[in-house]
Task: structure prediction
Amino acid sequence: MTGNAVIELEGVNEWFGDFHVLEDIDLTIRERERVVVCGPSGSGRSTVIRCINRLEEHQEGRIVVDGQELDDDT
Ligand SMILES: Nc1ncnc2c1ncn2[C@@H]1O[C@H](COP(=O)(O)OP(=O)(O)OP(=O)(O)O)[C@@H](O)[C@H]1O
Ligand SMILES: [Mg+2]
Result:
């Protein structure tokens, strides 16, 4: 893959109370790339997508979407 990175996650962590739902997620998705997120029910697939579209706020790490870091100013 050679396109620009449009979605980047670096060391993303999130907890629901004591439950560590996302643990050190690193992910780069480039222009025109299609990615399938696999895993058992409850493994956090929807949660990671909800962090990327900002329906959830991650607690640690960085998420950058098309050059815009998702933070308190987003
Ligand atoms: N708002 C929330 N508060 C507390 N726990 C949550 C919340 N949302 C999700 N969870 C829990 O986090 C875990 C991951 O949920 P998620 O919805 O990301 O799973 P999934 O991989 O999409 O699985 P599926 O779609 O089969 O439910 C599950 O144990 C779920 O119960
Ligand atoms: Mg789901």
Summary: The chain has one domain: 5-69. The chain has a mean pLDDT of 96.
